[in-house]
Amino acid sequence: MLRILGKASSINVRKVLWTCAELHIPFEREDWGSGFKSTNDSEFLALNPCAMVPVIEDGDFTLWESNTIIRYLVSRYDGLHLYPTEPQTRARVDQWIDWQASELNRSWSYAFLSLARQSPEHQDSAALSAGCRDWARNMAILDRQLEKTGAYVSGEAFSLADIPIGLSVNRWFETPLAHPDFAAVKAYYERLSLRPGYVLHGRNGTP
């Protein structure tokens, strides 16, 4: 039985949970992180020295870093329909997974913490305005890509890239800020919402 360590409200844990839902992987999940068992406990640090969720244990194999985990799961549990082996097709999937981690995540950080989490340390109006603009700029990039494909982020078929991107889209719509009219992103949101795993672990009211 796959063991997943991390609270279900974490966007990075939800990547793993949604991937498990797509591949019908049974798992047991334990609450770790803010509000639950501390990731600074020695038990957790022995598994992940970075003290971050999620961590998985698959038998005697331990792995951390959410995007690495979901790539591992599709390779380990017959999910290559989500992560094709043809080099150029796989590279397109990886490109968008990495973009979500390196660009999109960074752009929404301040605005999300300010508006959704109401963090007292993130209430500077100038920084908030800049954060909202940067987030919208990246969502415009996504909107143009979805206009090109007419379906999913890396092409016509749902792929592993849609899991991190789809969770970020949910965060965009669930955060109380002015949302430009990105028609392709909105249609994508509804398209993803036909997938039971997304409804359960993405579009479930948790930003």
What would you note in describing this structure?
By secondary structure, this protein is of the alpha+beta class. It folds into two domains: 2-76, Glutaredoxin; 87-199, Glutathione S-transferase Yfyf (Class Pi), Chain A, domain 2. The protein has eight helices and four strands. It has a four-stranded mixed β-sheet, with helices on one face. Strand 1, helix 1 and strand 2 form a beta-alpha-beta unit. Helix 1 packs parallel to helix 3 (66-76), helix 4 (87-115) runs antiparallel to helix 5 and helix 6 crosses helix 7 (183-192). The longest helix has 29 residues, at 87-115. InterPro entries: Glutathione-S-Trfase_C-like, Glutathione-S-Trfase_C_sf, Glutathione_S-Trfase, Glutathione_S-Trfase_N, Thioredoxin-like_sf. This is Glutathione S-transferase. Residues 1-81 form the GST N-terminal domain. Residues 86-207 form the GST C-terminal domain. Pfam families: GST_N.
Topology of helices and strands:
Blueprint: E1 2-5, H1 11-23, E2 27-30, H2 42-45, E3 55-58, E4 61-64, H3 66-76, H4 87-115, H5 125-149, H6 162-174, H7 183-192, H8 196-201
Parallel strand pairs: 1-2
Antiparallel strand pairs: 1-3, 3-4
Helix pairs in contact: 1-3, 1-6, 4-5, 4-6, 5-7, 6-7
